Amino acid sequence: MSLELLRQQIDELDEQIIGLLNRRMEVVKQIGQFKRDQKTVVYRPEREKFIIERLDKLSSTGLLNRAAIEAIYLEIFAVSRHLELSEKIAYLG
Ligand code: PRE
User: Fold this and answer.
1) Which of 6, 17, 61, 63 has its CA 20 to 30 A from that of 88?
2) Burial classification of residue 28, based on how many CB atoms lie within 10 Å of its CB (0-12 exposed, 13-18 middle, 19 or more buried)
């Protein structure tokens, strides 16, 4: 397969990834609203750990090992927390 065709595959996969990440952030936004209503904390390290462990098991036959999953998801969680916190700050004014 040519480099061009391989890159075309990457572009299509990236479109799916960015679409899914945006959908994930829509859900995170709702969680942020829920936490504001409940006046509870944004950062949930035990939940983040659970997600990484679950994905590591799911990915056991794939190329991503735990360190790779962790590296990717720690960034995703940071963006999630930022979104939840920025909405909280906007709400407080
Ligand atoms: C989420 C984000 C921040 C928390 O630290 C844990 C998990 C996530 O992105 O999955 C979502 C969330 O706020 C939550 O599950 O409580």
Assistant:
1) 17
2) buried
**What tokens appear for 39 in the block?**
């006046």
Set out the domains of the chain in order of their start, with CATH numbers: 3-92 (1.20.59.10)
pLDDT digits over 12-52, tens only?
A: 999 999 999 999 999 999 999 999 999 999 999 999 999 99
Ligand 1, from 24, 43, 48: best to mutate by most atoms within 8 Å of Cβ? 48
Looking up tokens 């407080």, which residue turns up? 92
CB atoms within 10 A of CB 73: 16
